[in-house]
């Protein structure tokens, strides 16, 4: 059973702003009943100021979908359209004092409905027909463009997180390999992107620092990976677990979780957090995988 906050329960049992908004001049529809979740967001916008005077919703979905939709309507009322567009799915979850990881896709659906409703008001076409990217998950109709966007905006690093935030791969699992490819591509692009904000002008680096960081040899890279793994072992050992490297094949690092970590319900989260540390310390995208997948790779 998922652990819901009191605020999620409150907005589920007593949702705000439900029903049809007769005076709506901006309507956004996302999801589908066939896929399990659907949301219609209706906005009443004052034309001269573009302030959202009222908002209502109709949703088909779980308690988290209802609570997220209710929270969204409360968040947007009184804001201008431009202000409303800055609301992220994390803002929706934060308003509810958090959502279970497995239900974060409900907040993403709310953000998409808001974008669709504002586009509808402005007479713009909001596309949700997968023309922007390859259709990755056929079960839930999730394309690569949505996965890339959600990964960037929420700093996701694992397939499990992508499933929690988008539902992609949560049914038949046949798209897991494609999701991993999109995830790897997006993280690699983030790693190579310049860290300087567009509005800022970088200061000239000292001559000694201007040279490129020397590339690690294969041996140095393997030793670095071993050092990083060794640095996290005490944390696992405190909980009567452990980790060992089995093999390193290109970007894939195969490991065995041992002791209490083996078969733990949080095994995927543990691997995800260690993978993030490897990613940050190595300065390159790598995948941390259970050794059981090594034979499959061969």
> Which ranges are low-confidence, i.e. pLDDT below 50, for 5 or more consecutive residues?
198-212
Summarize model confidence as the mean pLDDT: 83
> DSSP strand (E) fraction?
15-25%
The H-and-E topology, N to C, reads as: HEEEHHHHEEHHHHHEEHEH
Number of domains: 3
Q: Which CATH top level class of the largest domain fits? A: Alpha Beta
In whole angstroms, the N-to-C terminal distance is 37 Å
Please report the total strand number as a whole number. Answer: 8
Tell me the CATH topology of the largest domain. Answer: Sufe protein. Chain: A
Morphology call? elongated
As a percent range, the share of helical residues equals 40-55%
Describe the structure.
By secondary structure, the chain is of the alpha+beta class. It has three domains: 6-121, Alpha-Beta Complex (Sufe protein. Chain: A), CATH 3.90.1010.10; 135-192, BFD-like [2Fe-2S]-binding domain (Arc Repressor Mutant, subunit A), CATH 1.10.10.1100; 218-297, 2-Layer Sandwich (GMP Synthetase, Chain A, domain 3), CATH 3.30.300. It contains twelve helices and eight strands. It has a three-stranded antiparallel β-sheet with strand order 1-2-3. Helix 4 packs across helix 5. It is elongated. The protein starts with 5 loop residues before the first helix and ends with a helix.
């Amino acid at each position: 059973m998922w652990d819901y906050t009191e605020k999620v329960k409150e907005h589920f049992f007593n949702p705000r702003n439900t029903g049809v908004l007769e005076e709506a001049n901006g309507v956004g529809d996302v999801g589908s009943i066939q896929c399990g979740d659907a949301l219609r967001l209706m906005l009443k916008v004052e034309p001269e100021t573009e302030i959202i005077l009222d908002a209502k919703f109709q949703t088909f979905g779980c308690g988290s979908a209802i609570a997220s939709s209710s929270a969204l309507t409360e968040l947007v009322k009184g804001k201008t359209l431009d202000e409303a567009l800055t609301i992220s799915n994390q803002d929706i979850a934060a308003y509810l004092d958090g959502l279970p990881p497995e239900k974060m896709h409900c907040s993403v659906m709310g953000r998409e409905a808001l974008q669709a409703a504002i586009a509808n008001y402005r007479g713009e076409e909001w596309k949700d027909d997968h023309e922007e990217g390859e259709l990755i998950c056929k079960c839930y109709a999730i394309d690569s463009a949505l996965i890339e966007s959600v990964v960037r905006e929420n700093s996701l690093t694992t397939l499990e997180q992508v499933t929690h935030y988008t539902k992609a791969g949560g049914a038949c699992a046949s798209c897991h390999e494609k999701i991993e490819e999109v995830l790897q591509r997006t993280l690699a692009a983030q790693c190579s992107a310049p860290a300087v904000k567009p509005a800022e002008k970088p200061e000239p680096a000292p001559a000694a620092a201007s040279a490129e960081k020397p590339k690690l040899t294969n041996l140095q890279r393997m030793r670095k990976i071993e050092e990083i793994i060794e640095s996290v072992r005490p944390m696992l050992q405190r909980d009567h677990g452990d980790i060992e490297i089995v093999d390193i094949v290109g970007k894939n690092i195969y490991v065995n979780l041992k002791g209490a970590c083996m078969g733990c319900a949080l095994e995927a989260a543990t691997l995800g957090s260690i993978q993030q540390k490897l990613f940050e310390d190595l300065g390159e995208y790598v995948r941390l995988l259970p050794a059981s997948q090594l034979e499959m790779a061969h």
